[in-house]
Amino acid sequence: MKTEVLGRLRRFWIGVAMFAFAAGGLAILAPEGNAEYADVVINNYSDKAGMRPVVFPHWFHRVRFRCKVCHADLGFQFKAGGNDINMVKIIEGQFCGACHNGEIAWSVENCNLCHSAVPNTPTQVHESTLQKLVAPAGDRKK
Is this prediction's pTM over 0.90? Predict the structure, then answer.
C-alpha cells in the first residue's frame, strides 16, 4: 500500500516536472530574447561562435542571493563585459558554472536557456540609464 502511494506520488511529480519543462521549453523556442530591465546581455563571444547572446537575469538571481555571492565569492566584476566568460570556464566550474553544475542549479546542456538574446545585441545592462543618455554626463559641453 505504502509503495503504491509513493509510486503514484512519484508519477504525479514527474508529470508536473515534464509539463513545466514543456511549457518552459515553448518559451525558450521563441525567436526573440526576453531581456528585462537590468538583465545583463553578454555577447563577448556568442555572435562570433554562431550563438545568440546570453541573457543573464540579474534580478532573478539577486532576489535569491546577496551581491557578495557572485561579485566577491565568484569574482564577477561590477561591469557588463568586465569578465572574460566562456563556455570552457563555465564547464570547469568558474563564473556561472560554480552553481550551474547540475547539482545546485541546472547544467549547461540546454544552450537556449542562456543563449536567448536577439543576435547582434551588444554586451550591456538592458534598459540601462547610461544607454539612454544623449552624451555621457562627463562629456557634456557647457
Answer: no
